[in-house]
Amino acid sequence: MSHIPQRLTNYSIQMKNILIIGSTGQIGSELTMKLRQIYGGQHVVAGYIPGAEPKGELLESGPAEICDVTDGEALQRICEKYSIDTIYNLAALLSVVAERKPLLAWKIGIDGLLNVLEVARTHGCAVFTPSSIGSFGPETPAQLTPQDTVQRPRTIYGVSKVTTELLSDYYFHKYGVDTRAVRFPGLISNVTLPGGGTTDYAVDIYYSAVRGERFVCPIAAGTYMDMMYMPDALRAAVELMEANPDRLIHRNAFNIAAMSFEPNQIFEAIRKYRPQFEMTFEVDPLKQSIATSWPDCLDDTCARQEWDWKPEYDLDAMTRDMLEKLEQKLRA
Predict the structure, then answer these.
(1) Residue 196 pLDDT more than 90?
(2) What is the longest distance spanned by two Cα atoms in the chain?
(3) Which positions are annotated as active-site residues?
(4) Is there a contact between 108 and 263 (Cβ–Cβ < 8 Å)?
(5) What is the DSSP code (8-state) at residue 134?
(6) Rg of the chain on CA atoms, in Å
(7) Fewest CB atoms within 10 Å of the CB: 187, 223, 306, 312?
(8) Shortest CA distance to 132 belongs to which of 160, 110, 161?
(9) Do the beta carbons of residue 231 and residue 159 sit within 8 Å?
(10) What is the third-level CATH fold of 187-226+258-331?
(11) Under DSSP, is residue 313 helix (H, G, I), strand (E, B) or coil?
(12) pLDDT score of 332
């Protein structure tokens, strides 16, 4: 192992052979590199689909294989070839894209998950398949949403995420497959651009600020959503998969939280460092309808109790880091 982050020293790190499905996506591209830092490049296979090939360091730092989650036989071959014992299944359409392509969203998210779970069952693999705040709906308590509560989403994205949680639990209880998951909030990254999520505005706004552009916000003022900086999200995924299984009660899927804000709050956080920055509103009806159906903030007590989850970034710390990193990135 080349590097173990400080927060993971509390866990007994065991060498793994890992397959990342969706390794070139918004989360996968960064998670693949983090896992290679921890376990060694040769132990982490970057799975991708044609047209989304890994490039640069992602391609050069370890093995890569064409891996379509809807092709169960290909998954079997890859797991046998590399003796895979852990799968991070990140294949999914983001919320706005899924709403426009519901059948494809189901095929990738659910039919694909069944392939992953069957491979895991036959090969003894642990599986991480993330859920989302989108798994909740308008009947869910919006403030400090409990770990166990009503989940009646009104989007295909949310329906597929609830199904993901239930299928993963089913394979754990019936077959003993070591399934684990978190409900990701909106994720904010300085590395990978967003690609069709309801919370994308919270990434786009930083690019506008660094470029000196006025930002046109597609989400209405006063719309609170849980958000998280990508370094915390990556760490959450790894820490949960390294957690002592004897402590886990919920498994699929844990609420995790870091910060909750509405558009004016992130705007003011940026103006603290870019006082000339300007923002106007032009609400996108589809994005707004999805955002309104989601909780304002989650109660992540169970994650804190069962595997010691704790975020490291709040809004101000994230804003400072985002502006600094993006300034360097855009200058280059």
Answers:
(1) no
(2) 58
(3) 157
(4) no
(5) G
(6) 19
(7) 312
(8) 161
(9) no
(10) UDP-galactose 4-epimerase; domain 1 (3.90.25)
(11) coil
(12) 77
